[in-house]
Predict the 3D structure of the following.
Amino acid sequence: MSAHLPILQILIPLMAAPFCVVLRHRDIAWFISLVVSLLCFAVSIMLLDRVLVEGVISYYMGDWPAPWGIEFRIDVVNAYILLIVSAIGAIVSLYGRHSVNKEIPKGQVYLFYTAFLLCLTGLLGMAATGDAFNLFVFLEISSLSTYAMISLGKDRRALTAAYQYLIMGTLGATFYVIGLGLLYMMTGTLNIVDLHDKLVQLDDSIRTLKAALAFLTVGLSLKLALFPLHLWLPNAYTYAPSTVTAFLAATATKVAVYVMLRVFFSIFGIDMFEEIGLGDVIMVLAIVGMFTASTVAIFQNNLKRMLAYSSVAQIGYIMLGVSFLNATGLSAGLVHLLNHAIMKSTCFLALGCVMYRMGTVRLSELGGVGKTMPWTMGAFVIGGLSLIGVPLTVGFISKWQLISAAFQADLMPVAFLILLSSLLAVVYIWRVVEVAYFRTPTHHAGFKEAPLSMLIPLWIMAGASIYFGIDTDMSLGVAQIAADMLIGGTP
Amino acid sequence: MESFTFLSPGLYNYWIVIFLMMVGFYIVISRGNLVKKLVGLNIFQTSVFVLYISMGKVEGGTAPIFGEGFETFSNPLPHVLILTAIVVGIATTALGLALVVRIREEYGTIEEDDIQAQEDETR
């Protein structure tokens, strides 16, 4: 049994999804997705535990040995990402029941859970597989179900948002396939480890390799919403159902970042990557993204849209950490991956509660909401403080690590820019605090706190954003091991 | 190998790939009609299929089936990969068209500009 853990992770949600369709009952579907996501969470904990003790786990699909068959290869990096995705999946299904029933038409709820399970399959598959083409297939599984989930939003603009994302996402995935095709042309293999072994033997001045790296980078940047390619993200996050937004914001872009890291460090390796000089390009884009997106966030009235822009900025921080090309920077990027998942899902889950009770997340209609929904807004404020990077929250750990990486790379101005852009986060979070707490409640005297089944998952995440701000063994400790592994070139 | 120039017959496929790729990409960017965008996306994806299938070709090779008198075979792996990619492409197109149907139900149009105009009015 335990030998099959890597594949169980993907098989369980994949097998469960058809049951949701066949049974056509919204509560049964919810229960299935809750059990499945909890199982995945348990499996990913076991995997991380085993990887930390025993080292890399290789699992051959159908017993076909590695370069020919598809390999599932779990090392610390994968296990870390699997844990993030499955944990968020579990929290979101625990939280989702009421919110989904309210925001999605009754007859479509079971389809929502089907799409959710398929999306989970795709994301976990992307993180677990050691085969670059297999990764593309999982990428498309997760993307297609994501488009469907977004289009379930109540507002009709959810449809155009989903369509726009479909076009951009497919372009991105196709770019990835083109880049992979060029690599296959040069090496004749698709296994990530094997690709690296064959690539280092090649002369790295070959133009095909540079073209391949360019295609892969652009394609994945589209998926992870790196600054100029983020256009699909604000609409998709704003109009998707609240539960979907919380899930996507914490997982989809994160897994895309992980794939990017695999391409940069596991396939190409840091030496070749450094020589091509892509790091500088990414650094500039990341910094511009941090400032532009944060500034745009300040002027948003719709809070979901505000947080969506803030997500673009936060992805800037993650990629900035990666672009330093040293172990500290990479571990900063990786730890921010987890931390951002925690704090952004806290914020989006809180907004889901607000949406559930008030039916809107427009700032102008939320005067005094902090008094009517103290627990919800309390969690939002904790998430917001994390976004700013206040000490004792997870955001502080990431920022601290990022700034030390900037010092280590001798880039004083960058460290200064990180601090400066954090101030923009202060502005947009403060706007919410001001409206929520310092205005008298106006027209919603009858509104009360969100149901307990939504508040508990919300506060688990809010608690996590404080816990991991104090005890960093689990988060930063693992991220550092993972970063050393990626930099060391031994995937 | 060294005799390859930009116009070598061996590169015809790749020229076609690049041409199709750019045509598809251009349609996706320039057209406002949502169905036409999907058509462009399909052409773009098809170019990649041709790219993969071309690279599987071995000169003088036959279809990869064992038989008397056949020694060289084309590489079947890219073909298999593209079979998967075609399935993915179909799923994407189907979902895209389904979204277009729903958009038409809600907005009464599938022109991007008209949809934008309706949104601007309601704002």
